[in-house]
């Protein structure tokens, strides 16, 4: 069934591959428009453990959108507008250490932005179509991921007998090309753990809307600096991802069950007392309840 946004609601969100919503028995496909244009696809709203969950295929259902062309603002806005306040963002990454081989599940606690030219803020001074104007807002980003969400994913992975790597820095590159060996070795020399293409600005935009965001990074290959062969290929990445998507889905579903019903984390307070100027966001407009 496909509907326009209307009264569709969800409290939890997952931005990930299109294999994820297929597990739900019943989904309603919800088309959402945003002031920033359309999101990557319709949102697939269903239920996990009695809670309403919205899935958004990050690259669109046909995987037609490369990382640098994704409308990240529209994606996060669409989830927020359905009522989603906690988001899990699984992604495929390259391992930057010998011990992080294919099949490793990393739950990073930091990211490093090496992207270029991506729109990465809602607070850019540009008026929205409804005439509202975003304020000048600087959100804290020292700890970019939700502590409660990270706990939920880590516990869910351990419960699934998939020992995760707890913490580490995810380098986000512009893509769509993979890293050179020199870039990759430099990332490793800096002590960073994995490299991907979608983690930024997803985490930042979530924080700017007061959403909880948790990254869970599935290592699909050794990045160029730590592997001895001809370098990473897209086919290898897809093959390893396909081989792990089942257990990743299990972990995500267990994590969704564990996400707290009431939030009291750094993300939930990021916009306390902030006049965002954005409708429905934080203390955005007079008379609009805090998200
Ligand atoms: Zn949080």
UniProtKB/TrEMBL annotation:
Q: In which pathway does it act?
A: Purine metabolism; purine nucleoside salvage
Q: What InterPro entries has UniProt attached to this entry?
A: MTAP, Nucleoside_phosphorylase_d, Nucleoside_phosphorylase_sf
GO MF annotations in UniProt: S-methyl-5-thioadenosine phosphorylase activity
* Anything else known: Although this enzyme belongs to the family of MTA phosphorylases based on sequence homology, it lacks several conserved amino acids in the substrate binding pocket that confer specificity towards MTA.
Q: Which HAMAP family does the record match to this protein?
A: MTAP
Q: Which reaction does it catalyse?
A: a purine D-ribonucleoside + phosphate = a purine nucleobase + alpha-D-ribose 1-phosphate
Enzyme Commission (EC) number: 2.4.2.1
- Report the domain of life of the source organism: Bacteria
Q: What NCBIfam families does this protein map onto?
A: MTAP (TIGR01694), PRK07823.1 (NF005876), PRK09136.1 (NF006599)
- Does Glycosyltransferase appear among the keywords? yes
The record's listing under Pfam families reads: PNP_UDP_1
Query: Oligomeric state and partners?
Result: Homohexamer. Dimer of a homotrimer.
Q: Which residues bind substrate?
A: 197, 221-223
Binding residues annotated for phosphate, in chain numbering: 18, 58-59, 198
**A GO CC annotation given for this chain:** cytosol
Where would I find the Nucleoside phosphorylase domain in this sequence? 12-256
Site note Important for substrate specificity, residues: 179, 234
Q: What is this protein called?
A: Purine nucleoside phosphorylase
What broad class of enzyme is this? Answer: transferase
Report the sequence similarity comment from the record.
Belongs to the PNP/MTAP phosphorylase family. MTAP subfamily.
Q: Which UniProt keywords apply?
A: Glycosyltransferase, Purine salvage, Transferase
> What PANTHER family does UniProt report for this protein, alphabetically?
S-METHYL-5'-THIOADENOSINE PHOSPHORYLASE
Source species of the chain: Kitasatospora aureofaciens
What is the role of the protein in this entry? Purine nucleoside phosphorylase involved in purine salvage.
């Amino acid at each position: 069934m496909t509907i326009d946004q209307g009264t569709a609601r969800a409290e939890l969100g997952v931005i990930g591959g299109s294999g994820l919503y297929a597990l739900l028995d019943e989904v309603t496909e919800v088309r959402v428009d945003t002031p920033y244009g359309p999101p990557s696809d319709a949102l697939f709203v269903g239920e996990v453990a009695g809670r309403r969950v919205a899935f958004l295929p990050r690259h669109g259902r046909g995987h037609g959108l490369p990382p640098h062309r994704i409308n990240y603002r529209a994606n996060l806005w669409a989830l927020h507008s359905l009522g989603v306040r906690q988001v899990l963002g699984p992604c495929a990454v390259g391992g930057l250490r010998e011990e992080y081989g294919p099949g490793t599940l990393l739950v990073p606690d930091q990211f490093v932005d090496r992207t270029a030219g991506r729109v990465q803020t809602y607070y850019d001074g540009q008026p929205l179509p409804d005439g509202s104007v975003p304020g000048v807002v600087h959100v804290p980003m020292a700890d970019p991921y939700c502590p409660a969400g990270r706990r939920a994913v880590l516990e869910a992975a351990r419960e699934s007998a998939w020992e995760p790597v707890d913490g580490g820095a995810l380098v986000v590159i512009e893509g769509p090309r993979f890293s050179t060996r020199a870039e990759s070795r430099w990332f490793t020399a800096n002590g960073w753990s994995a490299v991907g293409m979608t983690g930024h600005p997803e985490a930042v935009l979530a924080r700017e809307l007061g959403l909880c965001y948790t990254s869970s990074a599935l290592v699909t290959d050794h990045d160029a600096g730590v592997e001895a062969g001809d370098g990473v290929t897209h086919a290898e990445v897809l093959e390893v991802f396909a081989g792990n998507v089942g257990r990743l889905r299990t972990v995500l579903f267990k994590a969704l069950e564990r996400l707290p019903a009431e939030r009291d984390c750094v993300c939930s307070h990021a916009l306390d007392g902030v006049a965002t100027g954005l409708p429905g966001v934080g203390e955005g407009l007079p008379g609009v309840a805090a998200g």
